[in-house]
Amino acid sequence: MVPQTIPARIRWAVDVLDPQPGDQILEIGCGPGYAAELVCERLDKGRLLAIDRSESGVDRTKRRCADAIAAGRLTVRHIDLATLRVPVKRLDRAFAFNVNLFWVRDCEAEVALLHERISPGGALYLFYEVTPVTDVPLILENASAALMKAGFRVSVVESKKPAVVGLVGKR
Fold first, then answer.
1. CA distance 21 to 108
2. pLDDT tens digits, 107-165
3. pLDDT score, position 3
4. What is the reported pTM?
5. Alpha-carbon dihedral of residues 86, 90, 96, 100, nearest 10 degrees?
6. 3-state DSSP helix/strand/coil percent for the chain, to nearest 5?
7. Residues with Cβ < 8 Å from 161, sequence gap 6 or more?
8. Ordered structural domains, the chain, with CATH
9. Residue 10 to residue 105: CA distance in whole angstroms
């Protein structure tokens, strides 16, 4: 099987995330493993924990990133954020791409967990692909409110090509 090309929107998001070689990072909703592959390429002593509620997403990430798993840079788990117990004391960064948890329902417990685990100076990045049906104002309003309630300082990042909007919650 030939690996799929990594979409420009994911490349842009990982560039904004800017993982450093020693970072401890959490990816929420790893899906096919595109971002995990790019992040792990930048890690040396750092580690990525990638989680997904979907068993097929976990399986696809494990297949795509088998070398990073073997090298000890990546752990992939079939679990949702609400029940996750983060195995490291502090995270430098956490991120999600197109995960609607942060704007469609109450996510106070999940965001509080992230705020507790992200190191001072670290950040949570939430990226969303902009399509004709994406309700960008609603996403920004609801997700920003959830992050600010937990104590994050929020800023918006966006790209026109590829069309992506993101929130950066700084700790």
1. 31
2. 999 999 999 999 999 999 999 999 999 999 999 999 999 999 999 999 999 999 999 99
3. 58
4. 0.95
5. 60
6. 40, 30, 35
7. 8
8. 8-170 (3.40.50.150)
9. 24
